Amino acid sequence: MATGPFTVEQITLAYSGHLPPPPELLDRIEALWDDYLLAASRDGRMLFNSSVAYLKSAAVSNGILHLELAATDYKTFLVTTLRDRAWFEINSPAAMTPALGNSILLTHRDTAYLGVRSKQVAAYPHWAHLFGGVLDWPKYGSNTAETLLEHLYKELEEELGLAPRALTAPPRVLALMRDPELAQPELVWHGELLQPLAPCTDALNVREHDALLAVTMTDGLPVSVPATPVSLTAIRMVLQLQNHRSP
Predict the structure, then answer these.
(1) CA distances from 110 to 29, 187, 246 (A)
(2) Could you give the CA distance from residue 210 to residue 119 in angstroms, rounded to a whole number?
(3) Phi then psi for 41, rounded to 5 degrees?
C-alpha cells in the first residue's frame, strides 16, 4: 500500500469520525460476536474487546506517509473484516473497519526473529509472524508517529520483555502492507537489535507465542513452520535494503 522506508518524522496522522452501523447491523455484529466468544472459550482461545484504530486512508506525498485513522473496536473489526468479510463486502461494505496492525521485524545482522503464534490467538495460530498487534486507539489524538512508536514499544515489552534501548536506533517503517488473507492493513517496522535474542527467552509471552523463531534471512524459513505473507515480505525488503547498502 506504501513503500518506505519512512522515519518517524516522515509519518503524519490525522483522525476522522466514523458513523456507527445501523441498528440491524449492530444486532448482527453483537450476535456473531457472542457466538465467537462462546467458541473461543470452548477452544481455550483469547478473545476480548477493546478500542482500536482502523485505517480510513493512506497516501504518500513528497516522501511523507499520511495516515487517516478512525476509531472502532476489536469486536467490529473481527466480525466485519476478519470472520464475516464476504457477507459485509456484499451487503454493507461501509460497515467494515479494517483495524491497523502495527508490527516490527527484529533483526540482528543476517538473522530475523519471528514469533510462532499460539493456538489462543484469533488469527494465524501456529504461524510465524512479526511481533506487535492491532493499534490501540490513541488516547491523546497525537498527529505525530510517536504514538505509533509508543504502541510498538509497549508490544515489544509485553511480548518479548524488550526495552527500546535493546535496538541500535529507532525503528523505521518498511512499508504499509495489506495482508491478503485477513484483508487487514499492517504498518511494518524494522528494528536492528544490539544483541541476538536467546532462543529460549523467559520473557516470551506464552499466551501469544509458542516459540521464538530465529531465521537466517538468506536461507529462508524452515518448511515445517508456515509464515505469514507480511513477515515474508518484510524479510525480503530488509534483504534488499542491506544489499543496496553493500559496496
Answers:
(1) 45, 22, 13
(2) 8
(3) -65, -40
Strand partners, 54: 70, 99
Name the pTM for this structure.
0.91
CB–CB of 148/171 below 8 Å?
no
β strands within the chain, DSSP E: 2-6, 11-15, 51-61, 64-73, 101-108, 111-117, 128-129, 131-134, 172-179, 184-192, 209-216
Domain range for residue 200?
2-245
Alpha-carbon radius of gyration of the chain: 18
The CATH number given to whatever domain includes residue 13 is: 3.90.79.10
- For the chain, the domain total comes to 1
Q: For residue 174, what is its C-alpha cell?
A: 518498511
Query: Which tens digit of pLDDT belongs to each residue from 76-115?
Result: 999 999 999 999 999 999 999 999 999 999 999 999 999 9
